[in-house]
Automatic annotation (TrEMBL):
One of its GO terms (molecular function) is nucleotide binding. InterPro entries: Gfo/Idh/MocA-like_OxRdtase_N, Gfo/Idh/MocA_oxidoreduct, GFO_IDH_MocA-like_dom, NAD(P)-bd_dom_sf. This is Predicted dehydrogenase. Pfam families: GFO_IDH_MocA, GFO_IDH_MocA_C3. Residues 150-280 form the GFO/IDH/MocA-like oxidoreductase domain. SUPFAM superfamilies: Glyceraldehyde-3-phosphate dehydrogenase-like, C-terminal domain, NAD(P)-binding Rossmann-fold domains. It comes from Candidatus Pantoea floridensis.
Amino acid sequence: MNRSPLNGRRIRLGMVGGGEGAYIGGIHRFAARLDDQYELVAGAFDVDAERGHRFATQNYIAPERSYSDYATMAQFEAARADGIDVVAICTPNFTHFPIAKTFLEAGIDVICEKPLTTTLQDAEALAEVVSQTGRFLGVTYTYSGYPLIVEARARVQAGLIGKVRTVQVEYPLEWMATGVELKNNQQAAWRVDPQKNGRGGSIGDIGTHAYHLAGYVTGLKAESVAADLATFVEGRALDDNAHVLIRYEGGARGMLWSSQVAIGCSNALRLRVYGETGSLTWAQEQPNELIYTSLEGYTQIIKRGRDDLDAITRARTRTPPGHPEGYIEAFTNLYSGFAAALRARDEQRAISGIGALIPQIHDGLKGVAFVDAVVDSHQQGTVWKQPKYR
Ligand code: NAD
């Protein structure tokens, strides 16, 4: 593989999955375009090759770079002088491992959806491949891309709320409150199948987002977890609701709730962090505001877009306060962070700025280890379990 330097050009992106009727692939494409860092030039967009080729045509992909399967794509793209630099994996969880491994071994960097893999064994094997190949693997923990999440992180680190005592994080959704998987819902169908989703249901799908967010903002590492999982919709083999207690190193305590059956909750991810001298609250449905309350009893709304925010927060912001930014921009911040990291590596510079805070292989590994510990805890009677990686 002989690639021209990334300096002075867009990064060539390929995509696996994300075809017709798929959800997250479209968000990846928006995110890749918004800051103009990437061009999408190749793909194996669908498990159904015919549909994938149709989708490629509609998205102006050259016919010879629309592939019937990901293995052929990796082989041919690796052999082209103008082949893709990085591939985005936007497929169901059980396919992440073989697809990521194939591209990394072909010398192509990877942006992978969460959860990284369906088993801890696969996550460990993938970490080994990353280390052996020296390639980059970024994980799309979307919510760490929000500017005010970076701001919260910076303020916790600066000691604004003092030593953290408790972390309350919740990610409730309502879309699986009934058996939608039996009604041709493509997204739900594979999420209720342990072979395809992994051992954790809601905890793997969205609990991993919440877990990452809590650790990202506070810098705390989970020492042990105790979990109570429930399946409310009959016939499901996986949890659709999870409550998890977390003991963090250093004594802080956490509580995490993930649910796919919480009626009234569209995408109600919320994080509250309480320290010795204050607290911070952020909610995904009002992402342009971060609420700070001091021990003295005053409450301040910190607004995205202000000039006095942390430099990395400002680097992740595009419009002044009052012009809302949201989900697509947060996802873009991850993509632009990945681009910054890839360019830094290419130029043998240390990663800094927006590229420094991106989720990578170890974050993916920690997410899978968390799910494993949670499911073990529940199955053994809500006992305390140590995640293998933290
Ligand atoms: P989906 O079912 O909507 O789409 C999956 C796509 O992958 C489809 O186009 C399907 O044809 C394709 N596909 C499956 N196997 C393939 C293969 N072997 N080769 C090529 N294409 C293949 O799923 P989704 O809801 O978009 O979820 C996909 C992934 O994204 C999951 O891992 C999920 O956890 C993750 N996700 C992440 C976020 C986030 O916020 N980061 C949000 C939603 C989903």
